[in-house]
Each structure stands twice: as structure tokens, then as C-alpha cells.
Design brief:
The protein has five helices and 14 strands. With 222 residues, the protein is α/β, with parallel strands linked by helices. The strands form two sheets. The protein has an eight-stranded mixed sheet, covered by helices on one side. Strands 2-1-3-6-5-4 form a six-stranded mixed sheet, covered by helices on one side. The longest helix has 12 residues.
């Protein structure tokens, strides 16, 4: 089964980004930070978190998927844009899994086709659908245990673009959001989600942008 195993922030100022996330979520040694490639920046790409899906054969997957390649493909890694506009990386299945991200949220323009492309093809388990007021169906999924993410057809909404949004757990959401604002980031939320999460009890969540424009999420179990 293919799943996300690595999370890489591609940004313009790596040192500033490391300091920001250390203040907000604490030091996480399993997260990667790299400089946004000049070619991507010149094409208008903002700073962003890039999720890596582990696969058995990167080159075969690229050939079968037919997605848009955003750089050179090697046996170890390929960076691609899916048919609905979200950017994702494929990597060797030998890469050790990261544990920092607790929720994976796909914002897409076509929920059913995205589920077929990611969920069905990857062998992910459908764990139910939540109806989000003003947004629509939110389909949750799991790998080999509790739910680890969801997909929603939200790209039609104002200011929402296709992307994977990755959530980090914090012990005190209000304190973390205050730090985001104080360090120059932006906050959307927080809000309460009561079903389909990684654990049975509700969680408080918030979507944020870091000072360089990369989107990320924060979660507090309540």
C-alpha cells in the first residue's frame, strides 16, 4: 500500500522557516526543509509543503499515471502535478516514514475522481463521509488503522486552490495560533471536527499560512 512517508517544506528562506516551525510546533527531526527551486519560483510556485508517497517503483508509477512531471524523474523520486492541480512527490518505498503529520487533507475539484486516483489505486480504506456545511461531502480514509485524512471538493470556493494540506498536532491550539500570528503567519479558524478523525474524540483544527506563504494545519485533540 502506498502512503505518505515524508514531508518537505520547499521555501525561499530555509533558516527562517525552521525557526518559525520550531516556535509553533517544536523541533521535528523527521521533517525536511529545502530551498524552493528557482525554476518553480520563476513559474509562480509559492512556498509549499510537499508530501511524498512511497511506491515500489517510481519510474513505473510515473509512466502509468501520466501526470505532469515538474522536474527530472529518478528511481528514487519524482515530483508531479495530478490531473486536478495538486502537487505530490513519489519516492522509493525504502524511505523511513515520518510521524509528524497526523492528518492529510486533499482539496480538489473532483472528489470522486480524486478518490479513485488516490484512494482506490493506493488501497486506502474509505472510513466514511462527513457533510461539511457550506462545503459538501468530506470523505475520510485510513491506511492500516484509524483515519489519517480526508478529501473534499472545495476548489470551487473562493481562495481555495488544489493542494494537499498537512496537519501537525499541538498540545494547545490557542497558544500555537497566537505564535503563528506573532511570528508573521496567518490563521484561518479554528473549528471543531467531531467525526472521522484519527481518534474517536473531537479535535480542534485550524488552517494556517506561514510567513513565506506555505499552507499547513494544526490539530489539538480535545
Amino acid at each position: 500500500m502506498s502512503r505518505f512517508v515524508r514531508y518537505e517544506l520547499r521555501t525561499r528562506d530555509v533558516d527562517a522557516a525552521r525557526a518559525f516551525y520550531s516556535d509553533v510546533i517544536g523541533t521535528r527531526d523527521d521533517l525536511a526543509f529545502s530551498t524552493l527551486p528557482e525554476r518553480a519560483a520563476a513559474a509562480g510556485a509559492p512556498a509549499h509543503w510537499l508530501g511524498h508517497l512511497a511506491v515500489d517503483d517510481v519510474e513505473r508509477e510515473v509512466a502509468e499515471l501520466g501526470w505532469q512531471a515538474l522536474g527530472p524523474t529518478t528511481r528514487e523520486r519524482a515530483i508531479l502535478r495530478d490531473p486536478f492541480g495538486s502537487v505530490v512527490a513519489l519516492c522509493s518505498a525504502m524511505v523511513a516514514a515520518s510521524s509528524s503529520v497526523v492528518w492529510h487533507e486533499l482539496h480538489t475539484s473532483d472528489l470522486e475522481r480524486a478518490w479513485a486516483l488516490y484512494g482506490v489505486r493506493r488501497g486506502w480504506r474509505d472510513t466514511g463521509t462527513i457533510e461539511l456545511e457550506g462545503v459538501g461531502p468530506y470523505r475520510t480514509f485510513a491506511w492500516d488503522g484509524p483515519s489519517v485524512g480526508g478529501m473534499v471538493q472545495s476548489v470551487r470556493l473562493p481562495a481555495v486552490h488544489p493542494h494537499w494540506l498537512f496537519y501537525f498536532e499541538v498540545p494547545d491550539l490557542d497558544a500555537a495560533l497566537a505564535t503563528v500570528g506573532a511570528r508573521g503567519g496567518k490563521v484561518v479558524g479554528p473549528f471543531l471536527r467531531s467525526a472521522g478523525e484519527r481518534v474517536a474524540r473531537p479535535t480542534r483544527c485550524a488552517a494556517c499560512d506561514d510567513p513565506q506563504g506555505a499552507a499547513f494545519g494544526l490539530v489539538q485533540r480535545v
